[in-house]
């Protein structure tokens, strides 16, 4: 299996090389010349600029009592499936 993967990768690279060369012969330009192969900048990010760009969103705290408890209803339907909802289940 490992040899098959290596052969497929080699065929892919050779095929890309041939395609690149044929495009060069047809257009006179190297198709891969416009691609920037340099690594991205690894400089530290200025967090203050990011904070200023983001809108103020209040994220609810999980596990903290905020004074407004949520009521959760647990009920089982006629098929025996248990459901958990915030809305009171309707009886039919």
List keywords for this structure.
36% helix; 2 helices; two-stranded antiparallel ribbon; 92 residues; 9% strand; mainly alpha
Number of E strands: 2
Largest sheet: 2 strands, antiparallel
SSE topology string: HHEE
Structural class: mainly alpha
> Which segments are poorly predicted (pLDDT under 50) over 5 or more consecutive residues?
none
Distance between the termini: 60 Å
Question: Helices and strands in order, then pairings?
Answer:
Layout: H1 2-27, H2 47-53, E1 73-76, E2 82-85
Antiparallel strand pairs: 1-2
Plain-language structure description:
The protein is mainly alpha-helical and 92 residues long. The chain is built from 2 helices and 2 strands, in the order ααββ. The chain has helices at 2-27, 47-53, and strands at residues 73-76, 82-85. It has a two-stranded antiparallel sheet. A hairpin with a 5-residue loop joins strand 1 and strand 2 (82-85). The model has no long low-confidence stretch (mean pLDDT 81).
In short:
The protein starts with a helix and ends in a 7-residue tail after the last strand. It has two helices and two strands. The protein has 92 residues and is mainly α.
């Amino acid at each position: 299996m490992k040899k098959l993967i290596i052969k497929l990768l080699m065929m892919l690279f050779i095929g890309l090389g041939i395609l690149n060369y044929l495009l060069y012969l047809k257009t006179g330009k190297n198709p891969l010349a416009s691609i920037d192969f340099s690594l991205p900048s690894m400089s530290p990010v200025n967090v203050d600029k990011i904070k200023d760009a983001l809108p103020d969103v209040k994220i609810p705290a999980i596990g903290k009592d905020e004074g407004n408890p949520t009521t959760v209803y647990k009920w089982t339907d006629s098929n025996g499936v248990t459901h958990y909802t915030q809305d009171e289940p309707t009886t039919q």
